[in-house]
Every structure is written in structure tokens, then in C-alpha cells.
Amino acid sequence: MKRAILIVIDSVGIGEMPDAAAFGDAGADTLGHIVEFDPMIEIPHLKSLGLGKIQGLEYLSSSGDIRGSYGRLKELSKGKDTTTGHWEIAGLVLEKPFKTYPHGFPKPVIDAFEKASGRGTLCNQPASGTEVIEAYGQEHLDSGKLIVYTSGDSVFQIAAHEGVVPLEELYAICLKAREILKGDYLVARVIARPFIGEKGSFERTHNRRDFSISPFAPTVLDHLKESGWPVAAVGKIYDIYNGQGITDEIHTKSNDDGMDQTLKMMEKHDTGLIFTNLVDFDSKYGHRRDVAGYRDALEAFDHRLVEIIEALGEEDLLIVTADHGNDPTFTGTDHTREMVPLLITGPRVKKDVDLKTRESFADIAATLAAYFNVKAPENGSSFLNLIWEDRDDQ
To answer: Which fold, 3-94+217-387?
Structure first.
């Protein structure tokens, strides 16, 4: 019974890409700077999978037996955002980055959006999600205007108080924005950012929704689905692929809920792919430049990771990786262009195998295709033959 669990620890980069300077990210190192902040960080289960043996991560002392294979991945796509990273993990490499709006959205976009939504707009510039609701939240409450903002990513974000704009209306407005933001004004994602509370204590809720474009070409998710394998999405995975290639899905409220739902999906599906994104690392700690919070989140994930490992079946494959960096010690509030970890384990995964530096996130997609014996994506090289232990009884 073949089953793979793929967990993306969102934004946990492990050091700058060779081209990081071109993105303004020279010197970025999400994990390295967190460990520098607290050398006593306790992540024993990640270390047991070989995290400290990955090239460049020797600062993480490893003791005891290594129970997995490990390496690091470069990103071929020209971007450092959620969509680009996840699409490459699934085998789709983008030669051109998604369009961003460092000066806000042009007047034709805002005019069309205000007409479609029936509401005015506030802000319309790059901003931190928590800071923007403090700055414009009261005016939004008073006027009913929508808070529109962006970031270093290709995103059109709409913040609205749930008491002013009901969730159903906010989601419908996002769909209207999605129709506007295409062609010359294409963005990767339109994001609903609902919040509650009063001035001085506004708080974003767990009702965020991402409205993405569909992948431009088939991914390994499509090939799995077409071949009859379940593809279960946990967290914002469904949104990132706009549902394409997904057969089952559930949204989550937090990293901890994401781990709970992953375990439930493992109980529900004994075959196929379970694909999980844990977004708190990125949204709560990376963007907010909260080093201590990021450290705590890594320790909490490590504590829960053993539950996944212990639930693995004889043929199961567990892969832990990331989609980009978001160094909480870096300038600004945006993602950072970094390599990401590659940790693999399972009863039949060879122990202490160094996969070194792989040239693309898409190597994960190629490996999944080989594992499930489905059509391979156009990009990526499988490492299955390097990690999979053949047995005479199979």
C-alpha cells in the first residue's frame, strides 16, 4: 500500500540561494539565524532525520543514529513566493516571476475593483498584515471601505472586519477581484484577510482564504489523480493549486491543527498522497519578524513530528521540506530567497544517506512520480533509487 506524506514547513529556509543578492536577500538564513538567536533550540526529531547533517547546517549538532535521508534543494523558478515554491515542489518551474506591485495597484485595477465590490478602498500599498489593520481598521469600521494591500509577493489582499463585511460577502468580493486580476494585471493570489475586535486590539481570524490561479501545466498532483490515487490537501494546499489535482481537502486553523488534520487524513487514506502546509511559521512569525515565536513554533512542530513518524506504515514515505525562506532577523517583512531542507524517512527509506544539494524543488515531484509509478512531471530528477531500500520479501 503506497502512501506519501509531504509536509511543507512554510518558509523554513536554510541559507541564501546563489542568486539571493539579485532578490535583495544576500545573507538571509532563516534557520541559521534562529539557531544563532537560541543555540539551545530543541528539535531532536528533525535532527534525527538528518537536519544537522545537511550541507551548511553543521552548526546543528547531531547525535545518535540518523533515521532518514537528507539534503537541500535549490529553487529553479525565478521567485520566492508561496505559489512559485509549491508549484515547483509539484514539478512546475516558472521561468518568469509573478508580477508584483511595490507601489500599489494601478488606478484601472482599483476602479474596476471598487465598481465590482460596491465598496471603496483604503491603503493600496505594500504593508504588514497586522500593522495595516491597526492603521486603517477604525476608518474601515467607520466607512465600510475595504483595506487593500500587497507585499513583496504577487498578492492582492483584502482585509475586512467580520462585523462589517460578512465572510460570504468577502469571499464573493475576492472572486470578483480574481476575475479582474488577470492578463496584464495578473497576480498569483487574491487573499481574504478577515479580522475582528476594536481599535487597539484588532485580531486576524482563522477564516483566511486564498484564491489562486490554476497551475499553467499539469503537476504530479494531476498525474496522481488521473491514475486513481487519492490526493489529500491539508491547510492552504487546496488554495495554492486552485483545487487542481486534489481529491480531498481540509483547511486548518494553525500549525497544531495542521498536524492533527494530517494524522486524521492518514487514518482516512491508507494510499495516495497527503500534502500538508503549515503556514504559521511564515504568517505569524516570519512576516512579523518574531524570532522567539519562530523558535517556539519549530520546537512545537518537532514535538508533533514524532506522531507522524510513529504512524507511518511499512510502505510509507514521509518528506519534510519548505517553499522559500522568511528570515525573521532580516530587514523588511517579506520572504527571503533561500534553499530549503529535504528530509525523508519511512520504514524502507535508507538511513543516513546524504542527497547533497539538489538542483530543483521539482526533484520531490519526480520522486513521487517514481514512487507511485505515474507519469513524471517535465521538471525534476527522482532520488527514489538513492533512498529506497529494496527487500527480497517484496
So the answer is: Alkaline Phosphatase, subunit A (3.40.720)
Residue 391 scores a pLDDT above 80: no
- Compute, in degrees rounded to 10, the torsion defined by CA atoms 85, 130, 330, 282: -30
3-state SS track over 251-272: CCCCHHHHHHHHHHHHHHCCCE
The burial of 200, by beta-carbon neighbours within 10 Å (0-12 exposed, 13-18 middle, 19 or more buried), is given as: exposed
* pLDDT of res. 231: 98
Residue 241 has pLDDT above 60, yes or no: yes
Predicted model pTM: 0.93
Domain with CATH 3.40.720.10 in the chain: 3-94+217-387
Give DSSP secondary structure letters for 119-150.
S-EEEEEE--HHHHHHHHHHHHHHH--EEEEE
Could you give the residue range(s) of every CATH 3.30.70.1250 domain in the chain? 116-212
Q: Which CATH class is domain 116-212?
A: alpha beta
Q: For residue 319, list its beta bridge partners.
A: 6, 344
